[in-house]
Structure formats: C-alpha cells, structure tokens
Amino acid sequence: MDALSNMIKKNSYLIIIASVLLVLVSGCYYDHANLSYPQQNSAAATCNLSSITYSSSVTGILKANCYSCHSGSASAGGGIQLDTYATLKVYAANGQLLNSISHTGSVPAMPLNAAQISSCDISTIQTWINNGTPNN
Q: What is the model's pTM?
C-alpha cells in the first residue's frame, strides 16, 4: 500500500507542476498590438497625404504645435518665426523644420519639452516639402 500511496503522491505532484507550467506558458505570448488592437493605429490608417496645402494642412499643424512660441515676435521661440509662408519656407528648405519635428539632426527637437507630433503630421509636412513647399 505504501508503494501505491507514494506513486499517487508522485503523480499528483507531477500533475500540479505540469498544470502550473501550462498556465504560465500559455499566459505569456507575444501578439502584435496593431493586429489585436487596430483602433490604436486608426490615425495612421486615416492619414491622407493626397491633397496637402500650405493654407489648410501645414498651417493647421503649425498652429496646433508651434505658433505658441514661433509666431509674432517669436521672442519665446529663439527668434524663429513660422507663422508666415516666407519665413517657414526658409526653415523647410534648409532642413531645420523637418529635423526638429522628426527629432533628428543637429537642431533641437520640437515642440520643446513635449512629445513628438504625430507621424501623420510629420508625413504631411514632409510631403509638402517634397512637393516643393507650394504656397497654396
């Protein structure tokens, strides 16, 4: 009877250990968030780069993210003004605008002390620059 009792205990321990391992292993899996939670990426999916204009697309992004420091006298923004087409075109042409909003290059990352603007907004400005920075 002792042998049978020991065998039952041994099998019980093995079943418990196997069950715990099964729970641990099945609870840890890698999923792709963009596939499991597609609503998180809806902004990227709806980024329309087909009809970008300076007057509506670009200025809207700049008003929301840049004008608080970089408009008017721009004293808070290091003297950099982005609220007119002529001044913005200079920073777009020399690469400072795109480098600062993309957080790349040797210029300070903008917006200062804030999160990077959305990838759609960066792509919008990049497309406008690639199209020759039209004043439309």
A: 0.64
pLDDT tens for 81-124 read: 888 999 999 999 999 999 999 998 788 999 988 899 999 999 99
Only one residue has tokens 């004008």, namely 67
**Cα(120)–Cα(55) distance, rounded to whole angstroms?**
17
Tokens for 88? 């913005």
Nearest CA to 74 out of 61, 62, 85, 83 is that of 83
Percentage helix, strand, coil for the chain under 3-state DSSP, each rounded to 5: 55, 0, 45
Phi, psi of 109 (to 5 degrees): -70, 135
Cis peptide before 38 (omega within 30 of 0): no
> Token pair of 26, please?
């099945």
